[in-house]
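EI: anyone free to look at a 651-residue chain?
SC: sure, send it
EI:
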Amino acid sequence: MPDPPSIWYPPRDLVDQANVTLFMEKHGIKGYKEFVDKSIRELEWFWGNLPGWLGVEWFKEPYKTMDPSGGPMWTRWYLGGQLNITYNCVDRHAGRGGTAFIWQGEDGRVEEYSYARLKERVDRLANRFSEHGVGRGDIVLLYTTMIPDMIVAFYAALKVGAAVAPVFSGFAPASVAERIDASKAKAIVTADGYYRRGRIVKLKEKLDGALRLTRHKPGLTLVSRRLGLELDLGPGEYWMDEFENGARPSFEPVELNGEETALVMYTSGTTGRPKGIRIRQHGALFMPAKDIYFNMDLKPGDKFLWITDIGWMMGPWQIIGANSLGGTHVILEGAVNYPSPTRILDLVENHRITQLGFAATVARLLKKEAGGRVEDYGLESLRAFGNTGEPIDRDTWLWVMYRLGRGGRPLINLSGGTDMFGPIILPSPVVPLKPSTLWGPGLGCDVDVFDDEGKPVRGSVGYLVLKKPIPSLTWGFFGETPERYLETYWSRFPGVWYHGDWALIDEDGYWFILGRADDVIKVAGKRIGSAEIEDIINSHPAVAESACVGVPDPVKGEVIACFYIPRPGRDSTLLPEELKNLVSERLGKPFTPKYVAAVRDLPRTRSGKIMRRIIRGLMRGWSLRDLSVLENPESVDDIRDTLKKLGLING
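SC: here you go
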């Protein structure tokens, strides 16, 4: 590949036809930066008009856009407005024709669902949900994978007024049990199993294991027949197809206040207990539709694929965002590089994908396993790439842009989070880009980079913050008192939302994300808290204490490294492998630590807080300027020696 230019400029034809260009011309806005600045400066103008721009249909129009009288952390939006997500994503498109989604199984099976077919199945299931007492204020937990029945259950739950709690299909029973207990789910939707790299994953069996560990028992469990496994279903358990049979094929959507809960997504944080991120109806609908229309440039007839799982934020984000605009999205079962390392390229070529999104891990895998063959594929349909979940390195960014994209398609590199149900910094297809950049603020998102004193900083690393609220911000943690929510997001800089990422704005005004400023690890774009892993490792009788951190990895972005202090007198010869297996059993194979090593001590402050960032800093070669805060600075040399033995730093 020849040396690329230092800045990529979008092709003229792409700029002229972009949704955002046509919008700006209609509204007399001269450029994208002016649009972003106006949307931030005139918050009520932007968010107040956005539903109309996106074609949202209210049952009852709001009388006021926002009410910040309770403080930014408790801002209320679209007061008096009533709507239903399923009505806006399915019902209003059903009479217009078009494909709602395409499903691609790992075994080669393909199914297409028209909006009309999807509505009929959603309505049948909604009627059955209602007959079994599932409705407004209840939780429907989805412990399933990317299959058509998942989409049906997702929309049926929202249609009856229930909230959806999606759970990652790779989680082990103990983690699933924790989320069932926390959500107190009224119903659970799962599958008999699914394919992963040619193997059968018996998902219902894992759910049964989780339910044996729970205090809370759901009243209703639905099981999809993905593999046709023979199962003995117990009381309150039904095959989903039989459950739907005979139900009426029409259901009137429940009219919901925009402040009611739509999604409860459990995400790992800096404490061991997952946080139940509560996303309200209006935020769940408007945020992904905004991003996918203005930034990912979805048009009628497009096919949108973001490689994800329903248990991660980008799953619901893709589903709601694409369908709210009447578009087609593609869902994918199984691994991205099985049965062929070029599976993703095959999908793009065969389905004529127009927008392809991923975590950087996927791009690195594709570059490694299929990089020499990308020119053999017809990728003309592609108009934009997307990346989220982890920073994308310069080499991978350049490969995606100039080898995969042939220099003519933007990479919409975005960053936000589950707790805001979308990105707060991202480019549009009409702006110039530097390698790895996220360009700058998203529409309606007043973001900044602060130093430790809470002052804006340019040209050096600082904390990503959001200075004004947006409708999709989590409004407290589900089932918890406000204190943990306020402590997590609003305590570092009073009145300002603390995001948790390191960020940098360079001398030309381009924004970059440099990784987590807290103790969240992202393995192939999947978040896990250090404390959640450490709780498991510390439960082993031979372990006194541990610290787990993310290690930069050329394929997965980060892998997990755990350092533990052995208890005196315990035989620890086989302990590293035991601890790896223990984490795998409790959290699932994706979160198995790659490195586990014993140390004499861990760096800690005088108050006893373990300084994981000291370990991260050693691995990244950062200057350690704050050792004076340590009670035991000699521990740093021990950690450094251990890192050398593991090959994580140069000897």
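EI: The chain has a mean pLDDT of 91.
SC: 👍
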